[in-house]
Design goal:
Helix content is 20%, strand content 47%. It is an alpha+beta fold. The protein has a single domain, classed as Roll (Pnp Oxidase, Chain A), CATH 2.30.110.10. The protein has a six-stranded antiparallel beta barrel with strand order 1-2-3-6-5-4. A hairpin with a 2-residue loop joins strand 6 and strand 7. The termini are close together.
Length: 142
């Protein structure tokens, strides 16, 4: 396994630096759960707008180890609640989310005044990326 390279980062950004549907898997007490989430990639992590009391967040609180899958990409990572979408420390990410998720973010489904509307960070630990006939095994922890 190799560290991310400029080539693999360029591939990741070309695929996932936009509103991307990925499968997010969690597991608690040996029972896996998987769901599709809207996410975007940036600097070794995926970011998801969600609700603190959602099933996925309750499961991540119990076991932060997750797996994800997207376009010719699979990975393991650690789920982390970054807190309220409107918090000062999330200003930059919230602005990017408003841009990346512009088609649906203001559809009335989200309550940005609710402190339980949060940002989930999925910090990647390892991944397999397929591109241009190559298989890239990436270690994000080095």
């Amino acid at each position: 396994m190799n560290k991310p390279t400029p080539e693999t980062e360029a591939i990741m950004l070309s695929r996932f630096d936009k509103d991307s549907l990925i499968a997010l898997a969690t597991a608690v007490d040996g029972i896996p759960s998987v769901r599709t989430v809207d996410a975007f990639y940036e600097d070794g992590s995926f970011y998801v707008l969600t609700y603190a009391d959602s099933g996925k967040m309750k499961q991540i609180e119990q076991n932060p180890t997750v797996a994800i899958s997207g376009e010719w990409f699979t990975a393991h990572g650690t789920g982390e609640n970054l807190g309220w979408f409107g918090a000062a420390e999330n200003t930059r990410l919230a602005a990017k989310m408003r841009q990346v998720f512009a088609e649906w973010i203001n559809n009335g489904h989200n309550n940005f005044d609710d402190p339980k509307t949060i940002i989930l960070r999925i910090r990647l630990t390892d991944a397999v990326l397929m591109a241009h006939g190559n298989r890239y095994c990436i270690n994000y922890t080095e």
